[in-house]
Structure formats: C-alpha cells, structure tokens
Amino acid sequence: MSPRAPLPLDLDTPLLVAHRLTKHYGARIGCEDVDLEVFPGEVLAVVGESGSGKSTLLALLASELQPSAGRVCYRQDGRLQDLADLGEAERRRLLRTQWGFVRQNPEQGLRMAVSAGGNVGERLMAVGERNYGTIRREALTWLERVEIAADRIDDDPRAFSGGMRQRLQIARNLVTHPRLVFMDEPTGGLDVSVQARLLDLIRSLVSDLGAAVILVTHDLAVARLLSHRIMVMRRGRVIETGLTDQVLDDPQQPYTQLLVASVLAA
Amino acid sequence: MTCLAPAPHLPGVNAASAVLRVAGVAKTFTLHLRDGLQLPVVADADLWVAAGECVALGGPSGAGKSSLLKMVYGNYRVDRGQILLQAGAQVVDIARATPRQILALRRARIGYVSQFLRVIPRISALDVVAEPLRDEGVPAEAASQRARALLARLNLPERLWSLPPATFSGGEQQRVNIARGFIASRDLLLLDEPTASLDASNAAAVIDLIRAKKAEGTAVLGIFHDAAVRDQVADRIVDVTRFGASA
C-alpha cells in the first residue's frame, strides 16, 4: 500500500490558467498575485465581500481588463496560449464563441432593443450559422430550455421581468455551447423564488453542456449549490481555497469563518 | 460484540487488505471568532474497514464520530495522519488529495448518507435519488427505474416521488437520503445515523439494504445510535473515545 501513488485523475489538463495575476488601480489594489486553474466541466466559485477584488479578477480572466502583472492562459487546439498574445479580433471571437459572460445586470449582457429570438440568434450567427430557419428553431429550443414561452420570441427583453431577462441572458450565452462561462453575481438582485429557479437552470444546463464556469458571488448558498471548488478573496488576495463543502463546513481562515458565520444557512 | 482490538474475523481479511485505513489522524477545530478557542476532535485515530464488513463507530456524542466520517469523506480537513482509500489499483490519501481527486472519489468510490438531506430547490425526490447514477453515466431511464425500486423498498409513498423533498417530513427526507446513498455501488459507504428518524419497519428495510451492500463487498463505516440496529449490521465496534486528545 503506497500512499504516494500518483492518480490518473489529474491528467486532465486545465482550460484556463492564471499566474500571479495582479491589477493595481493607481495605488489601490484590485487584485494581487492570484493563481488559479480551471478544468473542463468544473464550476469554480470566487466569493468575498464587495470590494474584495472578485469582479476585478473576473474581468482580468475574461481579458476585459489588462493586468498590471501576471498572465492568463487559455487552452485552444491542445495548447495553452497567453491571452496577451492574442490579437483583439481573436479575443472577441473567443468571447462570442467559446466563452460566455453572464452579467449581474442583464441589460449589460443583452441587446435590449432586439427581440428575444434575436438575442439568442445573434450568438449563433457569430459562430457562422446563416440559415434563418435553423437559427429560429435553435432560438426556440433555447427559450424553452430557459423556460421562456415560445410566443415571447419576438418580444424584446424590455417587456420581460428581471428573472426572465436573466434567463434570456443565459440562453444567449449557452446557445453556442461555450467551453468556459464567466458569471458575475448571476442571481443578484432577484427575488428568492426567482433565484431558486435560475440556480436550478444554471446547474442543469452547465452540467448538460459540460462547460467550465467561473462564478463570482457574495452568496455562499449560491456557491454551495453550484460550485465544485471555492476561492475566498479578501482585499484583492486569495486567502483560502478548496473543495466547496470543505471550505464552507471547515473554514480555516478567520475571515472565512466570519463569512460562513454571518449567513443564516449556507 | 464490542471488540476494541480489531481482529480479522472474515476469512483472509486484515488491515493490509482493507478498503479504508485511517492512521494517526488528528483534528482540532480552531474557532477564530472565539479568540482562537481550540476544540480537539481526535488526537490519534486508527481504524480500518475491509471489503464486505461493517465497522460501527462507538462512543458518546461529542466523541468525534461524525467528524471522523466527514474527514473520511473529505468534508473536514485533517491536521495530521493518513486516510488511505484503496481505489482500484491505486491508493489515495484523502487527507492530502486535491479537491478534484476527492470529487472523483465521491463520484466513483465513496458513498455517504448524512443525517440530513440537503434539499435542492425544484429537484424531485426521484431525481435526487437517481443523481449519483446519472453522474456515473447511467442512462436516465435506467437510473430512474433503480430510484423507483429503492423508494418503493423504503416505503416512500409514490405520490411524493415527483415532488421536491423540501416539504417532506424528517423521516421521508431521510429515506430519500438513504435511497440516494445506496443507489450506486461504492467501495466504501459512510453512514451517519441512517435510521435515526425511521420507524421499526423502515429501519428494518435499511438493515436489509446494509446487509445487501456488505454481501456485494462494500466496506461500510457507520454510526448507529440504535444498539439493536447496530448489532444486526456491525461486525466490529471501534470506540472513538480512545482516539481522543486525552487518551
């Protein structure tokens, strides 16, 4: 019985790797020295209070912000590529095709003056789909998957409730079967009952698609429900990381213990 | 029946061939919000469980029985020592495994029935039970069949099967939890008071399920507050108080 035998489980290669990722806003620290790996099909939650640097981190990972130091690499065609080496056109193509970004405010993630069907169809056109019938059929399928009635396909999202808008944003992002989805407080600002429905949708869709997700949330119950692993951030740094239920049930750091003790039931 | 020095009682079985070996495990909780108060759980835990046997953790409440199960499941961290699981040809030390390794072990090797069901909004009892099989790649229809059979065996009224368990009674939730824990084949099954909120006939159904698992070769490590239940399933009792910090 040899305790140090290597496992075959870790031969999987990461999809996204960040190394010593740092962002300073002048003298203020956005985030500092963050290392992380995300594997295919894995949901990683980044938790912390507002101002802890989690949204800055997400923007850096999605290459929406330029890091002050450190780098982010993404696996494409079998090799890890530094995102800084990609051209602007290539980065945009990634965002439209292999990546998704679900924002807390659906108005930032949707085109509000375009129909629901158009919002979903637009992403399909970005991956080269040109057949109108196919696009409309696929849009209908996805509206159904996010529980939006088929007869709302021609309505624009301004006529939708907050929960419906958020579901539409999820359909728009997942229709192209992305490999990696960034989510920034996807259930923030919604009623609890609306949240439950949305969480259940995210959970089942992500697992059906096998997408990797980096989820920023301040809500530990959301992290518990959706994520495999958790990273706790404070003042721009990662202070604790591990298996989600382990970090929440046996937190080591004083700040993590405070976070866990501050919620009713996570 | 109590036997503090584990002796091979099944033919050809000993610590060296165990599915699970816990060796020199220590665990203390540090409560930073209470001025760093130290809560020792265990100082030197040693035990093993072989395939096809059931080991019961004994000792008063607060002795660390549930915490030990949680350490074996990878839910609590370990300060010192090894938790070695025979996983096929490999041996994995759960005390040092990465989160991804632990998740992989939970998908394929370790089952755990906690005291309380963690309810997920909008997921039906049937799907809660079938999920471990679905995660293994069993087709939906086959997984659902197995889930139905188990829920029927545990006498959960059929009208409840399609409902999320949030509104179920404690005993009904526990039966969903047990069905979920027993549906898949695992090398190691951890049971935390599986019959605590069940009446006699349902407890008897669980005893049958545990015996069936043992017959399949599953190693079972459990906490059974009901001595009658324990005596019907356990091959050995390991007294956790002897792992204590003061021991």
Which descriptors would you attach to this protein?
heterodimer, A: 266 residues, alpha/beta, six-stranded mixed sheet, four-stranded antiparallel sheet, globular, B: 247 residues, five-stranded parallel sheet, 7 helices, 9 strands, 33% helix, 24% strand, disordered N terminus
Task: Describe this entry's structure for a reader.
The complex is a heterodimer of chains A (266) and B (247). By secondary structure, chain A is α/β, with parallel strands linked by helices. Helices cover 37% and strands 25% of the residues of chain A. In chain A, the strands form 2 sheets. In chain A, strands 6-7-8-3-9-10 form a 6-stranded mixed β-sheet, with helices on both faces. In chain A, helix 6 (162-174) runs parallel beside helix 7. Chain A starts with 15 loop residues before the first strand and ends in a 5-residue tail after the last helix. The model of chain A is unreliable at 1-11 (pLDDT under 50). Chain B is of the alpha/beta class. Chain B contains 7 helices and 9 strands. Chain B has a 5-stranded parallel β-sheet with strand order 6-7-8-3-9, with helices on both faces. A 4-stranded antiparallel β-sheet of chain B has the order 2-1-4-5, covered by helices on one side. In chain B, helix 3 (125-135) runs parallel beside helix 5. The longest helix of chain B is centred in the last third of the chain and has 17 residues, at 200-216. The model of chain B is unreliable at 1-8 (pLDDT under 50). Classes of the chains: A alpha/beta (266), B alpha/beta (247). The A-B interface holds A 1-5, 7-10, 12, 39, 42, 196-197, 199-200, 203, 225, 228-229, 242-246, 249-250, 252-254, 257-258, 261 and B 16, 21, 29-33, 70, 74-77, 82, 84, 86, 90-93, 97-104, 120-123.
End-to-end C-alpha gap of chain B: 22 Å
- The total count of strands of chain B amounts to 9
Mean pLDDT of chain A: 90
Largest interface: A-B, 33 and 31 residues
